Amino acid sequence: MSFEEDDTVILHDEHSEYDGEEGTITQVMETMFGDETYTVNFEDGQESGVPEDSLEAAE
Q1: pLDDT digit string (tens) for 23-53?
Q2: CA–CA gap between residue 28 and residue 37 (Å, rounded)
Q3: Is residue 59 pLDDT above 90, yes or no?
Q4: 12-24 pLDDT tens trace
Q5: 56 CB contacts (<8 Å, ≥6 apart)?
Q6: Strands (DSSP E) along 7-54, which ranges?
Q7: Hey, how many other C-beta atoms are within 10 angstroms of the C-beta on 26?
Q8: pTM for this one?
Q9: 11/18 Cα distance (integer angstroms)
Q10: Beta carbons of 12 and 20 less than 8 angstroms apart
Q11: Pick from 45, 53, 46, 59: which is nearest to 3 by CA?
């Protein structure tokens, strides 16, 4: 599943301080391999370079 800007997502990354938190995608970037990574804004910060498989669509 691909995400777009302004989508609300939940981050699943045990190494991130935002693991399990809900945020909003603010930027979609394409890597040189054709994969997409995302910048996600949270209430108290942001996480950049998030791969698609670390995100889940929020209700």
Answers
A1: 999 999 999 999 999 999 999 999 999 999 9
A2: 6
A3: no
A4: 999 999 999 999 9
A5: 9, 10, 12
A6: 8-11, 22-30, 36-42, 45-51
A7: 13
A8: 0.91
A9: 7
A10: yes
A11: 53
Calculate the CA 58 to chain-centre distance: 11
CB 59 within 8 A of CB 7: no
pLDDT (0 to 100) of residue 1: 72
Q: What is the pLDDT of residue 25?
A: 98
Q: Alpha carbon 38 to chain centroid distance? A: 5
Contact 40, 23 (CB under 8 A): yes
Type of residue numbered 13: D
Residue 2 tokens read as: 């691909």
Instruction: Give the tokens for residue 8.
Output: 């609300």
First vs last C-alpha separation in the chain = 15
Half-sphere exposure of 47 (CA within 13 A, CB side): 26
